[in-house]
């Protein structure tokens, strides 16, 4: 017989807390390895203030976060140990937007479970049955909790050290993209030429997502790291004069791998190279570094739409 898990039992399975907690209820289904998760998306969700103020849409990466949290709960219920963490995103497709007033229902299957890893397939739909996203990922565990940095200010790769001047500061970035607090993540752009943009993200304990993602060890969520990459790509596309009055929407994430968490005190250098840019569609490869150490790499695609859409 299926079982519904709600609070406070859910708190024992999911370490995230406000504002990073994105699951309201989980159903353990009769079929082995099958779970359903629910997230009620209310108009009072804090991220709607910054994504996007005039066209509120649940960020695609928070659909990813909801899937990852449901997967982490399933992982523990299936006998996994340690702190669940997304290691790889094999493929994620975004089909339809999630809007205020929607109920997001995640149909999740967990397989190949070991103490330290599992494979996840999930489809997220709204309450009307419309598919919002499809994701295949590999779940692992954080072996280093908390992660302990070894340098105060890691030395960047030589190619990034050459970019000494800011091309765009936060004011210029805000003029290019519609994202606002608490969902704007690019602090500086230090290079932008010929389908290539390099930006910086400073990770601080004062950011709400850093505090409450996996307490008491503050790390930047995988979802926010992915969103940071996407925003940098959008900075490039929306800085082009022909794209004025557009907004950028996620289309897909592919071949994403996360090597270690970003933590407060890190200065992340994001290297985004567009492989394809035509009309309103862009696709590129992004690598994120802390000093000379690579944090993650991924391929993503996004589309530009009119703000009124």
UniProtKB/TrEMBL annotation:
Keyword annotations from UniProtKB, A to Z: Lyase
Pfam families: FabA (PF07977)
InterPro entries tied to this protein: FabA_FabZ, HotDog_dom_sf
EC number: 4.2.1.59
GO function terms (MF aspect): (3R)-hydroxyacyl-[acyl-carrier-protein] dehydratase activity
Name of the protein described by the UniProt record: 3-hydroxyacyl-ACP dehydratase FabZ
Gene that produces this protein: fabZ
